[in-house]
Amino acid sequence: MTSKSFIESDFPVKKVSEESAREKNIRHGHISTLHIWWARRPLASSRASIYAALTPEPKDEEERLKRAQFISNLSKWENSLNKALIGRAKEEILKANNGKPPKVLDPFAGGGRNSP
């Protein structure tokens, strides 16, 4: 990418922060809380920041508002398995990177990885 990424130009910090805090409170009893990895980050903020870092800045105010709303929806716990939303994010990331999947480090958001 030659232009700035969305995260460099604008990012709905307040909304993503609210969803991250909410996620921490609603995961009680979820399998992910069995063992909390010491560096665990909320998946809400991980999804949102990865998407925003890998997509270009909006061209105008209308696009900025739409993308901010998309990021807000992407960060919600209820949308963690929303195939349409995740698929759209993947498509937009691929489009922004000339169809080549970019390398993303720590896709487990500090949650470690189970070896097969």
Map the helices and strands.
Elements lengths: L5 H4 L3 H14 L16 H12 L6 H14 L8 H14 L20
What does this molecule look like?
Helix content is 50%, strand content 0%. The protein is an all-alpha fold and 116 residues long. It has one domain (6-96). The model has no long low-confidence stretch (mean pLDDT 77).
Whole-number count of domains: 1
Weakly predicted, low-confidence segments:
none
Q: Let me know the average pLDDT.
A: 77
Please outline the major beta sheet. Answer: none
The Rg value, from CA coordinates, equals 15 Å
User: In sequence order, what are the helices and strands, one letter per element?
Assistant: HHHHH
- Distance between the ends: 35 Å
Question: Helix count, per DSSP?
Answer: 5
Approximate shape:
globular
Q: Give the total of beta strands.
A: 0
Q: Which structural class do the helices and strands define?
A: mainly alpha
What is the share of helical residues? Answer: 40-55%
**What fraction of the residues are assigned to beta strands by DSSP?**
under 5%
Notable characteristics:
116 residues, 50% helix, globular, mainly alpha
Quick take:
By secondary structure, the protein is mainly alpha-helical. The protein is built from five helices and no strands.
